[in-house]
Amino acid sequence: MKNNSSIMFFLLILFVFTVILSLIQGPVDISCKNIFKIIFYKLGIPVSITWDHNVYAIIMSVRIPRVLLGILVGMALAVSGCAMQSMFRNPMAGPYIVGIASGASFGASVIIIFGWTRLLIVPGAFLFSLLTAFCVYYIARVKGKVPVETLLLAGIAVSLFFSAMVSFTQYYASESNLREIVFWLMGGLWKADWYNVLVSFSVIVPCTFILYLFNRELNALMLGEEVAQNVGVKLETTRKIILVLSSLITAAAVSVSGVIGFVGLIVPHIMRMFVGPNHRILVPASAFAGGILLVWMDTFARRIISPTELPVGIITAILGVPFFLFLLRTRKKTMGF
Amino acid sequence: MFIKINNITFYYDSFKALDNITFQVDSGQFFTIVGPNGSGKTTLLKCINNTLKPYTGAVYLDKEDISIIGEKAIARKIGVVPQNSSSQFPFTIFDTVLIGRYPHLGTFESESKKDYEVVRHSLDLCDIRHLETRLITELSGGEFQRMVIARALAQEPSVLLLDEPTLHLDINYQIELMELLVKLCKNNGLIIVMVSHDLNLAARYSDRVIILKSGRIFVCGTAEQVFNEQNIFDVYGVNVEILRDKTGCLNIIPLCVKTL
């Protein structure tokens, strides 16, 4: 218990540090002092204005939304990955297990190749990913029950189908559209603006909170379906609720950032190594760690070949996987799967 | 307090697994269900706590039909120790037993002092309080089984259902576990319904025994009434010799199968 609260405290410190560091980093040099002053100014605290107009614009409409979006998306992927792994009792489950990524990709690709307004991409990807999740759920339903294995397999099958559909759209796309689709699929936070932040915030934060309220059910499910039923968990209803919440969270993340791999699969595992499988602590720890990790990775992606940037999805995999494998080798015993 | 199983029939698709099962167990009674593999013992236990819905019939706790009171309410009255429990997830014993408090908590409610006290009390009853910070992945078979019983007790049930609790345990743990159950039954007035393959343990510790055969009650009564050579031959197809040990308990010794 004591150990856990110190880990949460450490994550909180790291979180604040990460946010500040990420705000400082960028092609234009802005001092830490000015960043704080601008934030205070915005919050209505009187400060002397020592910055010029451009700096203000960069902070307010570029860097802050980007950091916020990074936190939200990282948090979303880690939390829903954690819930999916626990519910399926499968270490290979992740946020995209019920076909959400491929559904969203297909939605976005269709909107791009038909040349519809790009404003439609976020709602379109969101709707398509939810539609896919519902399809998977209803395909997997047998006599009012949804067996875990069937759900996993249906998710994989439907994902493959939509991946093929995305390839199909790519095959027929014009050169410029193809480029746009490929970029969308790689996943990144370069579309960060206040609109995207607000849209994803309004879905991700409430759903994550509700999911957290299900920490006891998740614990019980991890001990096995039979145990869960014996202590009074409504199995099918609980599964459905967790699935809907995770799907909403993931869909909100994917539709604003494209498909960012690794975070949702690996962060819950890393946190499980440190705080154990109890969801009361695992869910908030994963949320923090996911946000921190993605903001770090994104900062790196922005700076490594400055002034242009890499898609963050590439960085998360290239840097994150070796780190995870290192942990896997050294702390294998306590992981649980 | 009593539990009444009334006319339960259950089908797996078209296979009739349970046929018109009726019996009643009172507070402080140790009740054992024995029978060959596939005779419906586990199915019967699952019907009792309503995780399988019986096709006909109902289970009553003090005249209250449990199928209509909801999952959490059932879990507040009936605790279950399932058959093949083990876990690969490193929860601590305390956290695992705390899951037994689930039926007493609302969605927005967090565990109170009382819940922690009940958990500690359950750990004490099962004599594993000193292990509360140990991980369940690092327990021996006997300790794990005690932890599962502690979790069921943390539900503060009036009825405890156990599915072959002594399976995989050495004889020392078997006896310890059975004596723990008898203690809970006699001192705390718990109703115990146990499924077992071990006829000798059943004969020694149960107040009443039923033998199931192909989903029907073949015979029901005290161990003395139920366990005789003819009954066991009819149900299991095995010739046995029944002796009395030093303590006066029945001892059932298999001799040979009927084809010989």
Task: Report what the structure shows.
The complex is a heterodimer of chains A (337) and B (260). Chain A starts with a helix and ends in a 7-residue tail after the last helix. Chain A contains 14 helices and no strands. In chain A, helix 3 packs across helix 12 (263-275), helix 8 runs antiparallel to helix 11 (235-257) and helix 12 (263-275) crosses helix 13. The model of chain A has no long low-confidence stretch (mean pLDDT 87). Chain A is mostly helical and 337 residues long. Helices cover 33% and strands 30% of the residues of chain B. Chain B has a six-stranded mixed beta sheet with strand order 6-7-8-3-9-10, sandwiched between helices. A four-stranded antiparallel beta sheet of chain B has the order 2-1-4-5, with helices on one face. Chain B has 260 residues and is α/β, with parallel strands linked by helices. Chain B is globular and about 55 Å long. Chain B has helices at residues 41-48, 71-77, 93-98, 113-125, 141-154, 171-188, 199-205, 223-226, 229-236; strands at residues 2-12, 15-26, 30-34, 56-61, 64-65, 78-81, 159-163, 191-195, 208-213, 216-221, 238-244, 250-257. Chain B contains nine helices and twelve strands. The longest helix of chain B has 18 residues, at 171-188. In chain B, helix 4 (113-125) packs across helix 5. Chains A and B meet through helix 9 and helix 10 of A and helix 2 of B.
Broad structural category of chain B: alpha/beta
Round the Cα radius of gyration of chain B to an integer and report it.
19 Å
Global mean pLDDT of chain B: 91
Count of DSSP E strands of chain B? 12
Give helix % range of chain B: 25-40%
Number of helices of chain B: 9
Beta-strand percent range of chain B: 25-35%
Question: Which regions of chain A are unreliable across 5 or more consecutive residues at pLDDT < 50?
Answer: none
How much strand of chain A? under 5%
Number of helices of chain A: 14
Helix and strand pattern of chain B: EEEHEEHEHHHEHEHEEHHEE
Main sheet specs of chain B: 6 strands, mixed
Q: What is the subunit organization of this protein?
A: heterodimer
Shape of chain B: globular
Q: What's the total number of strands of chain A? A: 0
The strands making up the biggest β-sheet of chain B line up spatially as: 6-7-8-3-9-10
Largest interface, per-chain counts? A-B, 22 and 31 residues
Share of helix of chain A, binned: over 70%
Round the mean pLDDT of chain A to the nearest integer and report it: 87
Major sheet of chain A, described briefly?
none
